[in-house]
Specification:
This protein has about 300 residues and is α/β, with parallel strands linked by helices. It is built from eleven helices and twelve strands. Helix 9 links the parallel strand 10 and strand 11.
């Protein structure tokens, strides 16, 4: 695996450091998940976003469902999800997600989506329908939603949160200084507002967010971002190494060693005791989400 970036004379390839190598997908579990997703005509962020953990997760019979289609209305420079003309919503998608999750035997189901700024409710009701379908099919499983910002509209957050997801996740993604470049159609402060509104208004879900590093930020900016997220009432933040999906995306500016992530975790534990930071090179928003949720549930 390598990271491709744009050089002065065209695309150049930077070799990934040893700690960022991943095995190729294999095994019966992987094949089963691929078959179930194909049968259900379902999308996953694992594949659409080219997640490096796909092989590991699918081999464990775990996948993160991506609803609202597979085409996004925004154009974030870090994201591999397809952009372009969107298709009408499929009203049967929530039921197919629930059926696939049931067949996979998921105890913790993670559902995310593309951003659908074209819809009057930006897809909030579709999220709600998916949560309801999952509750009906898997009454003993927990549900985590990773949602777009819904333009911080309270009525849309209400549509999702009244279904009482166990985890409400919205990613800040990057530090404030880089946000206009990396997420030109989003807004750093708006994302913080979403986290604060949910944490303040709805006592049920664990509020969670995510951050990428390696985009050109400084360590001071990373720490300030974690402080900002802690002030919203966010309880958990995942931090992982950014890997450019192609030479058309924002280049990787720095590869952080595993020890750096460990040091960041220790810093957060010391200075932001109300915020749990889960940081490592391959950490992603939904990576080992069921394990992390289990650890949180055991805490007082």
């Amino acid at each position: 695996m390598s990271d491709t970036r744009q050089g002065d004379n065209g695309p150049t390839t930077r070799r990934l450091p040893p700690w960022l190598k991943r095995p190729l997908p294999a095994g019966a579990g992987y094949a089963d998940v691929e078959r179930l997703l194909k049968q259900g005509c379902l999308n996953t962020v694992c594949r659409s976003a080219r997640c490096p953990n796909l092989g590991e997760c699918w081999s464990r019979r775990v996948a993160t469902f991506m609803i609202l289609g597979n085409v996004c209305t925004r154009n974030c420079r870090f994201c591999a999800v397809q952009k372009g003309p969107v298709e009408p919503l499929d009203p049967n998608e929530p039921g197919r997600v629930a059926e696939a999750a049931r067949k996979m035997g998921l105890k913790h189901v993670v559902v995310t989506s593309v951003t659908r700024d074209d819809l009057p409710d930006e897809g909030a009701a579709h999220f709600a329908a998916t949560i309801r379908a999952l509750r009906a099919a898997l009454p003993h499983s927990t549900v985590e939603v990773l949602v777009p910002d819904f333009h911080a509209r309270p009525e849309l957050l209400e549509i999702v949160c009244r279904e009482k997801p166990d985890v409400f996740n919205h990613n800040v993604e990057t530090v404030e200084a880089l946000a206009p470049i990396i997420r030109p159609m989003a807004d750093y402060r708006r994302s913080l507002t979403v986290l604060a509104m949910v944490a303040r208004t709805y006592p049920d879900p664990i509020v969670k967010s995510g951050l990428m590093v390696g985009l050109g930020e400084t360590e001071t900016q990373v720490r300030q971002t974690l402080r900002d997220m802690a002030q919203t009432g966010c309880r958990v933040v995942t931090v992982g190494q950014y890997l450019a999906p192609s030479d058309r995306h924002h280049p990787v500016e720095h590869f952080y060693e595993p020890a750096w992530f460990e040091a960041l975790t220790h810093w957060a534990a010391a200075y932001l005791p109300d915020l749990i930071v889960y940081a490592a090179p391959f950490v992603r928003s939904s990576y080992l989400a069921e394990k992390l949720f289990g650890q949180l549930r055991k805490q007082p």
